[in-house]
Amino acid sequence: MNINNLFTQHFFMRRILVTGFEVFSQHKTNISQDIISTLDEKIIVDDPWYKSRAYKLDGVEIELERKILTVDSFGSRNISERLGQGESWDAIIHMGLCDSCLIPRIELLASNILDMKIPDNLGRLEKNTKIGESNLKTKMNHEIIFSKILSQEFELSFDAGNYICNETYFHTLKAIANRKSDNEIPCIFLHLPNYDKITIENCKNLLSEVIGRMIFKPVISVAAGVIVHDSKMLVARRNDKQHSGYWEFPGGKLNLRENASEAIVRELYEEFGWNINSVEHLGNWFHSRTDYDIELIVQKCNFQGELPNFNDKKNWTSHDQIKWISDHAGVSPYVGCDEEVANAVSGLI
């Protein structure tokens, strides 16, 4: 999968397919159909990570192909058949009504089983029917793309149900996997609650943000801990496959809805078994990689109580050595922008 082609930093229009479903069963409306009916053909989507990025990316013009699918086997296969005939988009977003949802759900998996509780609009009532050999997951890296909260509350889900929404998602993901192309089309399914839980405007804002997450280069927020003792700062040497032999201020990615202080306390306990306090925010540094940018949020920390026994490494998961340094020249090489951090922080301790 060539992930670079999923993200944009250029001024060209992107074509995105957005689908909803017609009214079904006893419902008088379907919020996904109503959204499709009110979407403009062209929209501008802004960088959803602009607050965490070190440089500015202009908004991107999006051409939306809007499609309302029938609630039957024909509708569920409509997009997969078009993909099989060679059609392509820069991204595909399916939307559907979820009566039981309290907030929107971003579906990450399509089940290979249909088990309908109500007939579809042509009277079909499949029970425990296999539609494929195994479940299919979206190839989008949700841990990166949805690493930050959206303005509209949402939840990540691995259960798209066993009705037409799931069937459609399954067939589309399978068709994408069967394409003979190096550029994989990112695809996601949005399950939306009914009108008593959300408005169309909130749904459209959510859709715009999801599109932004799919086409802009993501930013990962990482917490790093500068532990200071006797006017020296602690650095740790990585021993994992990707960065073996490189030094860093230890830390890790912020979980969803977690702040930097919470993240650094959690990460240092998980990676070393250390109990620390996060006492001060020292600043943010930035580093760019091929697939994503990194916002490094640096926190000054100290140990709770006595210093740990650094010779006891049984709880260490990603490092093999620590060192106390007074300036950046104390070790080399560094991970990412950590040498810049060491150079800046050494003047503060």
How many DSSP H or I helices? 7
Main sheet summary: 7 strands, mixed
Number of domains: 2
List low-confidence stretches. 1-6
Structural class of the secondary elements?
Answer: alpha/beta
Radius of gyration (Å): 24 Å
What is the CATH class of the largest domain? Answer: Alpha Beta
What portion of residues belong to β-strands? 25-35%
The CATH topology label of the largest domain is: Aminopeptidase
Helix content: 10-25%
Return the average pLDDT rounded to an integer. Answer: 92
CATH architecture of the largest domain: 3-Layer(aba) Sandwich
Which word captures the global form? Answer: elongated
Distance between the termini: 45 Å
SSE string, helix = H, strand = E? EHEEHEEEEEEHEHEHEEEEHEEEH
Q: What would your notes on this structure say?
A:
There is one protein chain. This protein is of the alpha/beta class and 349 residues long. It folds into two domains: 3-215, Peptidase C15, pyroglutamyl peptidase I-like (Aminopeptidase, 3-Layer(aba) Sandwich); 219-345, Alpha-Beta Complex (Nucleoside Triphosphate Pyrophosphohydrolase). It is built from seven helices and 18 strands. It has helices at 31-38, 73-84, 142-145, 164-178, 200-215, 260-272, 338-345, and strands spanning 14-21, 42-45, 60-69, 91-97, 105-107, 109-110, 113-114, 129-130, 136-137, 155-157, 187-192, 219-229, 232-238, 247-248, 251-253, 276-288, 293-303, 319-325. A seven-stranded mixed sheet has the order 2-3-1-4-11-5-10, with helices on both faces. Strands 12, 13, 14, 15, 16, 17 and 18 form a seven-stranded mixed sheet that branches. Strands 6-9 form a two-stranded antiparallel sheet. β13 (232-238) and β14 (247-248) form a beta hairpin. α2 runs parallel beside α4 (164-178). The chain starts with 13 loop residues before the first strand and ends with a helix. The relative contact order is 0.15.
